Amino acid sequence: MTSPVPAQIHPAAEWPRLECVYRRLDTMHAWRGWHWWPDADPFEVAIGAILVQNTSWTNVERALESLRSAGALTPAAMAALNQDELEALVRPSGQYRQKARKLRSFLDLIAAHGSIDALLSLPADELRAKLLATWGIGPETADGIILFAARQSVFPIDAYTLRVFGRLGIGPVETTSYDQWQQYFDECVPPDRDLRARFRALIVLHAKHLCRKRDPRCGDCALRPECPGARP
Ligand code: SF4
């Protein structure tokens, strides 16, 4: 994370605005289901974080169900599959050859540390560096694994985050830099892991259900009064 938060943004002053957004998101979406809480299996979460790249969660669920039905949702069982078998099981998530290779790289990383628990127990900075050095794992996937599988405090950024906060005019809206947006949330949101996990989930739910890419449902949005990007 090398890009500085713009000088005009003062982290201490940002949380009250962000907390207001958080509370309204919670009011709108707390009743909806979220696939990664409260205590999902860490290995399954990590596999889901890799499989969800460039596809919908619905497709990931189909792939996870295939893996579950085959008894392959543990590191040892998945590692015992040959590549053809693994590709066939993750096929519903799309780009299945690449995804199978990515899973294999992640399994190698687990094996190098002895267990998934040992890997996920590394300090967040160390774990992030090791994940980013693993083929097929970029910043968004790495931070998703750290927050939802390792249950450590970090704030993943994705296109949903940029869309929602870009429309709200909150954050370093002049950039799409992952590092700069992450630094913004990291400096402005309290480091409580559960708060960050919930905030992150609410952003995703909001982007999927109301603040949609095309045709946002601004008329149903509690943030509309303060949203400069609201549609008529
Ligand atoms: S008012 Fe519309 S654009 Fe603004 S956050 Fe809500 S859904 Fe998104």
Provide key terms for this protein.
232 residues; mainly alpha; Endonuclease Iii, domain 2; Endonuclease III, domain 1; 2 domains; 12 helices; globular; binds iron/sulfur cluster
SSE blueprint and pairings:
Blueprint: H1 11-29, H2 42-51, H3 57-69, H4 75-79, H5 83-90, H6 96-113, H7 116-120, H8 124-132, H9 139-149, H10 159-168, H11 178-188, H12 193-209
Helix pairs in contact: 1-12, 2-3, 2-9, 5-6, 8-9, 10-12
The protein binds iron/sulfur cluster.
The site of iron/sulfur cluster has 13 residues, from helix 10.
CATH superfamily of the largest domain: Hypothetical protein, domain 2
Give the amount of beta strand, in percent. under 5%
Number of helices: 12
Q: What kind of oligomer do you see?
A: single chain
Radius of gyration: 18 Å
Low-confidence residue ranges: 1-5
What small-molecule ligands were found?
Answer: iron/sulfur cluster
Look at the helices and sheets and give the structural class. mainly alpha
How many DSSP-defined strands?
0
- Give the biggest sheet: none
Note the overall shape.
globular
Q: What's the N-to-C terminus distance?
A: 37 Å
The helix fraction, in percent, is: 55-70%
CATH topology of the largest domain: Endonuclease III, domain 1
Average pLDDT reading: 93
Give the name of the CATH architecture of the largest domain.
Orthogonal Bundle
CATH class category of the largest domain: Mainly Alpha
**Count of distinct structural domains:** 2
